[in-house]
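Case study 2.
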Amino acid sequence: HDLVYLKNNLKNNNYDQDIFGEIENFLFKNYNLDCPVFKGILEYCQIYTSASISSAYDLLKNETGCTINWSGGYHHAKKKKPSGFCYINDIVLCILELLKKFQKILYIDIDVHHGDGVEEAFYLSKRVFCISFHSFKKFFFPETGNILDNGLGLGKNYSINVPLKDGIKDESFYEIFYVIVAKVIETFKPESIVLQGGADSLAGDKLGNFNISYTCHAKCIRFIKDLGIPFVVLGGGGYKKKNVAKCWTNETSLLCDKELNVKLPYNKYYYIFSPTFKLDFPISGMIDKNSKNYLHLLKKTIIK
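Prediction:
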């Protein structure tokens, strides 16, 4: 990140006073309204970012084949500005750490929003291959991730964008995920993988428009796990809290080779998970606008 950006925006002493006291001060500090300032912002960024760097470091030391940081995955932050609730791009810093040892890194993003900040950071690089599966339409943040955007210079053809329409369901999502990722693994031969597992791609998310279940989401992660390539799993978006908690709890158990009872145990947050009190949650009846012809064209265009 740009040093001026860090100094001007993430210094806690900027926000010790009541920023809501004067409207002019509030508007000045909140020039980017989807990334509001708050007291403690520096510690907040340090905690999630250092956890992602530490995750990479553990892979470098060969202490494990997989590391997890659900508090990370802030894929929109840019070099000189925050964006989309993201202040520091921990993913980019995690990948940079991995590049100290591994020559080729594959980045996979299954958040409903395009992983624009990560793609931008490595758009000119052939050592980091970026794949993003996301919703793409006008007025849907960040409005980037066109299928034609595939890198520049040395990074030409080292970025893949998979623009999906509203309502995509399990079978279609996993099929296109499997076909594209398997092909990239075969040709690029990455030495390590970083996966951003944003849970806003789940059905019923308040900001998302996909219609996939937590089992499909986990199936994508299981596929990466079964490859046997060292990898980091990070969090990301997710705006229906109980579904996010269920999704990432299930995937943690999967990555740790543990089985969970679908029925949730009683705890002080039990009421939040009503009415089912189970790991699963209902899929909506929204229309899937991704026709077979459209998905076939996507795969054909990307894989060629």
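The chain has a mean pLDDT of 91.
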